Amino acid sequence: MMIDMATLVALVSSRICHDLVSPVAALTTALDILDDDHGADMRDQAMDLIRNSASQAGIKLEFMRATFGAGTIGVGDSDLGELRKLSERFFNTQKPELVWSLTLDTI
Question: pLDDT for 15-24, tens place per residue?
Fold first, then answer.
């Protein structure tokens, strides 16, 4: 199946937005909780939500930069060990489980 560049860009953009909606929405919710005076317990929960959501958004952006931005890296310039660590961090924020079977000796 051939896909034109405009469709590919639209699909990648849609994926980026899809992956960032959840942590950004959680940040907004946490900030709304902080705006209303719900007590120290709710404030602590809101701060935990902010930390977790900001971390998720950062991990997802790093992963997307490495995967979708790979065109800016020369062939063979990627560090497989770093890509594995990044992939593991990304998949820890997702429902599927990552099973990494490549070793550095394989390629």
Answer: 888 888 989 9
Q: What is the pLDDT of residues 26-43, one digit of tens each?
A: 999 999 989 987 788 888
Q: Which residue has the tokens 């980026």?
A: 16
CB neighbourhood size of 47 (10 A): 13
- Kindly report the pTM of this predicted structure: 0.67
Q: Work out the number of other CB atoms within 10 angstroms of the CB of residue 33.
A: 17
How far, in Å, CA of 9 to CA of 27, rounded? 27
Q: What are phi and psi of 91, to 5 degrees?
A: -70, -20
- The encoded tokens of residue 7 equal 């469709």
What is the C-alpha to C-alpha distance for residues 28 and 56, in angstroms, rounded to an integer? 14
Q: Is 106 helix (H, G, I), strand (E, B) or coil?
A: coil
- Degrees, nearest 5: CA angle 67-3-11: 50
Instruction: List the end-to-end C-alpha distance of the chain, in Å, as a whole number.
Output: 28
